[in-house]
Amino acid sequence: MTGSGESWLSDGLDDVAGGDCGLWVPGVDYVSGWRTAREAADRLNRALLGVGFELSAVRAVASTDGNGRGVVRLAGRPEAAESLAGLLEQLTDGSGGAA
Length: 99
Prior knowledge:
It is elongated and about 45 Å long. The chain is of the alpha+beta class. Helix content is 34%, strand content 14%. Residues 1-18 have low confidence and may be disordered. A two-stranded antiparallel ribbon has the order 1-2. A hairpin with a 5-residue loop joins strand 1 and strand 2. It contains two helices and two strands; from the N terminus they run H-E-E-H.
């Protein structure tokens, strides 16, 4: 997902590591993990847009963990997270599983 007006998703590596990560470990391939996470985050962001969420309110962000594995983090305002939780709850069968 690239294009003008989508500053939330830069082509740089600004968000390779989350704010809770320490220093990078030499020899760990963080970029590969980040690329995998980026693809998953892009897919989730397209789905969020598809159901009417604004990415300024809630979005998926690609990151890595300390071992270089890709991680997708959900970032957003609490009210948007509540709305997303409500939408997901509608898809469950009441026992915690998908309907």
